[in-house]
Amino acid sequence: GMAEEMLGVGSLVAGYGAEPVLHGIDLQVREGEVVALLGANGAGKSTLMRSLAGLHRPVQGGIHLQGHELGGLAAELIVRRGLVLVPEGRQVFPELSVLDNIRLGAFRQPQDREARVEEMFARFPRLRERQQQRAGLLSGGEQQMLAIARGLMARPRILLLDEPSLGLAPKVIAELFAALDGLRAEGMTILLVDQMASLALALADRAYVIEGGRIVAQGTAAQIAGDDALARAYLGAD
Ligand code: ATP
User: What is the pTM of this model?
Assistant: First the structure.
């Protein structure tokens, strides 16, 4: 049968000041799915991701994680419930070591922290090599891996990735998507925003297209990738 719903978003309205940016978003991510969220700059993708993570307060609508309402909870509690956002721009702490950045992902969940650090080093060997370096000295790709490792330290039930490939060279983007495919193969549930639409659709099971704060198309990744009108409008970025 169908996998259980992991994340359910219903009629979500959010904005800045009086004018909404999101005009009633409905979307669903099932357990074990990778779902891509595509759309032009300014469509509202980051506002949606930040609203889900409790970093922006929606005006109305429901956000459910495995059936439990998340709306209105503090960001830290949302992480503890299992929804973890790796934000746009990575936002690692440049002055802290790689190791300390990873450890910070287990903030408030210190049980078996060092064993989880070891898992991250096994997954991202470059981070082990550079564990004592300041995070600000890493390359962009390494910083993105670090941001993902930090997010995984919280043992997410669903990982939200906002523009992970932004500013990275093509070879590094390929490595990043290989790492994401590894997570997918392990059964991680992922909601992914990325301008690299064809790569995102190659990874994803399903996709939504957002335009002007509204979902204007949804389907399997193959359906979205095969839609010529959508391809012209949204898939030109790569
Ligand atoms: P991008 O890929 O450029 O980040 P996006 O789809 O993620 O685009 P958002 O960042 O969610 O879009 O922005 C949606 C709209 O909300 C834009 O018109 C943007 O100017 C506006 N906006 C975003 N953040 C703020 C803010 N802090 N204050 C006011 N307006 C904002």
Answer: 0.94
Total count of residues recorded for the chain = 238
pLDDT tens digits for range 177-196: 999 999 999 999 999 999 88
Q: What is the DSSP secondary-structure string of 73-107?
A: --HHHHHHHTEEEE-TT----TTSBHHHHHHHTTT
* Pocket-testing residue among 12, 13, 16, 163, ligand 1, by greatest number of atoms within 8 A of Cβ: 16
Q: What is the DSSP letter of 2?
A: P
Residue range 158-172, pLDDT digits in tens? 999 999 999 999 999
- Helix 140-152 to helix 113-123 angle (10° resolution) is 140
Q: Which of these, 187, 186, 161, lies nearest to 36 by C-alpha position?
A: 161
Nearest C-alpha neighbor of 163 from the set 217, 235, 86, 102: 86
Strands across the sheet with 68-69, in order?
A: 19-30, 5-16, 60-65, 68-69
Does the beta carbon of 144 lie inside 6 Å of ligand 1? no
AA letter at 20: P
CA 204 to CA 135: how far, in whole Å? 30
Q: Which residues contact 167 (CB under 8 A, 6 or more apart)?
A: 140
Q: Looking at ligand 1, which atom is closest to the CA of residue 210?
A: 6
